[in-house]
Amino acid sequence: MARDVHKILAALSSPVRREILALIWDRELPAGQIAAEFAVTKPTISQHLAVLREAGLVTMAVAGTSRRYQSRRDALAGLHGALESASKWLPAHDVPERGLAVARTSAVVIAEVDVDTDQTTTFAAFTDPAVYSRWLGVPVRITGRRFAATMEWGTEVRGTYELVSAPDLIVMSWNLDDDNVPVPGQELTGYLRVLPRRPMGSHIEVHQLVADAAQAELMEAAWRTVLGRLKAGVVDASKPDTAMPPRPQRDKRHSA
User: Architecture of 2-82 per CATH?
Assistant: First the structure.
């Protein structure tokens, strides 16, 4: 494991390799097209791509005489923001205006899943209350930007869609109402992306902000439940003629 970490750190030490990863973060490109984006020789880019492959940070697919590369999102979770050129963001210790503002760093839970519905259908599964209710298994109410649902073990989930940008981004603030849950009344912020997946289907990735380890554990369980239900039921839920009975009531003490 330590050896793998050293390989990753070594691979990310190069500004050119970081820029390559950013370039192919959400798309697959042939080596020649990647090389055309940089003011260095093609053999140099090939060497950089070999280092990234050795570190497990990119995948390579052979199509005829072409080699196509794409960043491995699972290996790079949480690193995308650091993939720009190292010279783009440098600490500016001598800027006096910095003292006029405050900043804080929050932990993030990342949950993701692949489903067999296309991007538009998958996005609608989070914004159409009828479809949402069918795959989640409990009634979901969406009024304007407000949404709410009561899980079968009694926990109420409610919140606001702060931003709905079809077909790929939803930003939500939400909370839980349950005396057995350690965060009732605390508003949480989550970012949900729906991305197309080759050759078909969609990839859903949620970035959930959390305050501490206990909240992170709860959010991991919550989003794994939600995304697991989405994967299991979104295909049938998107077909109005397919029957999907509601989930039976459960004892909340066993819901974890």
Answer: Orthogonal Bundle (1.10)
pLDDT tens, N- to C-terminus, the chain (256 residues):
444 667 887 888 888 898 999 899 888 999 999 999 888 899 999 999 999 999 899 999 998 888 999 998 777 665 555 555 444 445 556 677 777 887 777 788 999 999 999 999 999 999 999 999 999 999 999 999 999 999 998 889 999 999 999 999 999 999 887 655 444 446 789 999 999 988 889 999 999 988 888 888 889 999 999 999 999 999 999 999 998 888 888 775 544 3
Strand pairing category for 146-150 and 66-71? unpaired
Residue carrying the six token digits 């650091």: 82
Give the number of other CB atoms < 10 A from CB of residue 172. Answer: 20
The CA distances from residue 142 to 138, 158, 171, in Å, are 13, 10, 15
Query: What distance in Å separates the CA atoms of residue 220 and residue 15, rounded to the nearest whole number?
Result: 33
As a CATH number, domain 107-254 is 3.30.530.20
Element (H, E) at 54: helix 42-54
**CA proximity to 219, closest of 205, 231, 208, 234:** 208
Cβ(34)–Cβ(70) under 8 Å? no
What are the residue ranges spanned by the domains of the chain?
2-82, 107-254
